[in-house]
Amino acid sequence: MARVLTPRAEDFPRWYQDLIAKAKLADNGPVRGTMVIRPAGYAIWERMQAEMDARIKAAGAENAYFPLFIPENYLKREAEHVEGFSPELAVVTHGGGKPLAEPVVVRPTSETVIGEFMAKWIDSYRDLPLLLNQWANVVRWELRPRIFLRTSEFLWQEGHTAHATREDARAYARRILHEAYEDLMVNVIGIPVVVGLKTARERFAGATATYTCEGMMGDGKALQLGTSHELGQNFAKAFDITYSSKEGGREHAWTTSWGTSTRMLGGLIMAHGDDNGLRVPPKLAPIQAYIMIVKDGEGVAEAAAKLRDGLRDAGVRVALDDRTDTAFGRRAVDAELRGYPVRVEVGPRDLAVGNATVVRRTDGSKSPTPVADVVAAVLAALETDQQVLHDQALANRESRTVEVATLTEAIEAAATGWARVPWSAVGVAGEAEANGQGVTVRCLVRADGSVPDSEDEPDLVAILARAY
Questions:
Q1: Residues near 457 by beta carbon (within 8 Å), at least 6 away in sequence
Q2: Which DSSP helix (H) or strand (E) runs through 183?
Q3: What Rg do the C-alpha atoms of the chain give, in angstroms?
Q4: Are 192 and 390 a contacting pair, CB within 8 Å?
C-alpha cells in the first residue's frame, strides 16, 4: 500500500491529492478551479446531504430554490457584503449573443436574492419566523483551488431566515450551529469540532456575528467546516424586509444565514484518512459492509449472497463484490482506498471450516468468524468503529493543541497544531500580525468552552492555527 499513496508524513498535500484520485472520489474539471465529483465521492456527499437535510427540517426550516443568476444591483445594496465578495465574483455580461442591459452575478451566496423575496412574502408578524433552506451550487472564483476545500464551483446548503426580534434570530442561528452542524460533524462524520465565535476580521461579509465549527485535520491545520451568521438588520434594511408588529407599527426583521458545503468531504478525508486511503465512519458510509468473494468455489457465491441478504435485513448498507475475474489483491486495495468500514471475505478455504473473514478498516484487523456469527460481528464492529474514529481524531487534536500565554508562543505553536491563548494577549493588532505570518484566529470561546456573544466579553480564549 505504501506505493499506492504518498505517505502522509512525507507529503500531506500530495497524499490528499493521491487519495482523491486513487479512490476515484473526484477529478479536476475542464475549467480551472472546478471539480467533477465521481460516483464514489458523490455517494458520500448524498449521505451528508440526507443527514444534514433531516436536521435542518427538524429545526423547522423548509427547502426552496432561488435563481443562479442575481442582478448586480442586488449585491450593491449591501455595501459590506459586495465588498467582501467582489474579488470572488463571476459576472455574466453577455447572453443570447448580445450584451446584457445589466450584468448578472453567478451566485456566490444568496442573501441578496432571498432578501428580495423575503421582503415580498413577509407582511405581518404572523409571517415570522420565515425559515428557508436551499441545496444549490455556488461560484466563487478561487485563486488557489484545491478539490473539495476551495473550488470555483461547489455544492452546499444555505439557510436564510427572518425573525421578529434579535433574540429570536440569535437563538435560531445557534440552534442550527449546534443541533444541525455540530451534531452532524461529531456524531456522524466523527470529527470533534471546536464551536466558537469568529472575530470581526474573520466574520462573514455583512454579518453582525459569525459562529463556526472548526475541525483539526491530520496534519494539525484547521478547517472551517460550517458557519452560522447573525445578519442583524443589515440585509433587512437594504432589501426593506419589514413587517407589521402586534402593536401596529412597521418594523425591520432580523435575519440569519448559515451554510455547509462539499468542503466537509475534504474534512472527512483529512481527519480520518490514513496511508492506506479513506476511512469512512460507519454512520456516514454509503457502503458499511463490503462482501468480497475471494475466489470461486463450491457454495461460495451462495454463502456470500446469503450474508449480503442477512446484513441487509439487519439494516446494514451492504454491497457484494463477486468480480473473481479481477485479482483479489487489487480489489482489496480498492476497498481499502474507498474506506469501507467492514469487509467480509468469503473464500472456499475459510468456508470449508464454516468461516468467513471479517476485516475492520479502522485498524486492519482480520478475524475468522463463523458464518452464522458474521452479521452480529459486523454490527458490533460498525458500532465500535464509529466511536474509534471520533476518538482518534480527538486524540490527534488534544495532542497537537497547546496552552500558551503570548502571541509569539501562539504563532510558534501554529507551526504544528493549534494554540489556545488569552484573546486579551492577541487583540486586533495581534490578529493582524498573526495573519501576516499565515496564522489566523479560528474562533473565540469562553473559558468553559461555550460560545460567547461578543468578542468584547472578558476572559475569552482565542484558537490560533494555520488553516485550509
A1: 446
A2: helix 183-187
A3: 25
A4: yes
Name the pairing type of β-strands 318-321 and 289-293: parallel
Q: How many Cβ atoms are within 10 Å of 184's Cβ, its own excluded?
A: 25
Dihedral sign from CA coordinates of 364, 365, 366, 369: negative
Sheet bearing 222-230, strands edge to edge: 62-63, 130-139, 153-163, 254-261, 222-230, 209-216, 193-197, 440-445, 461-465, 418-422, 401-403
Reply yes or no: is the peptide bond before residue 286 cis, omega within 30 of 0.
no
pLDDT, one tens digit per residue, over 369-428 is: 999 999 999 999 999 999 999 999 999 999 999 999 999 999 999 999 999 999 999 999
Question: Taking the mean position of all CA atoms in its chain, how far away is CA 218?
Answer: 15
Query: Which of 110, 62, 63, 233 shows the shortest CA–CA distance to 164?
Result: 233
C-alpha to C-alpha distance for 384 and 298, rounded to whole angstroms: 33
Say how far apart CA 125 and CA 129 lie, in whole Å: 8
Q: Where are the beta strands (DSSP E) in 237-360?
A: 242-244, 250-252, 254-261, 289-293, 318-321, 342-346, 355-360
| Grid cell for residue 217 | 485535520
Distances (CA, A) of 394 to 216, 218, 220, 348, 398: 9, 11, 12, 41, 6
* Bridge partners, residue 300, by sequence: none
Helix or strand holding residue 389 (H, E)? helix 374-399
Distance CA 121, CA 342 (A): 50
Q: Pick one of 3.30.930.10, 3.40.50.2300, 3.30.300.30, 2.140.10.10 as the CATH number of 12-272.
A: 3.30.930.10
Task: Give the model confidence (pLDDT) of 260-288 as tens digits.
Answer: 999 999 999 999 999 999 999 999 999 99
The residues that bridge with 228 in the sheet, in sequence order, are: 211, 258
pLDDT in tens, 85-111: 888 999 999 999 999 999 999 999 999
pLDDT confidence of 339, banded at 50, 70, 90? very high
**Closest C-alpha among 11, 282, 189, 263 to residue 19:** 11
Three-state DSSP at 390 gives: helix
Number of other residues whose CB lies within 10 A of the CB of residue 101: 6
Q: Are 413 and 431 in contact (CB under 8 A)?
A: no
Check whether 434 has a pLDDT greater than 50. yes
Q: What is the CATH number of domain 289-391?
A: 3.40.50.800
Q: What is the per-residue pLDDT for 12?
A: 98
User: Between 374-399 and 263-272, two packed helices, what is the crossing angle to 10 degrees?
Assistant: 90
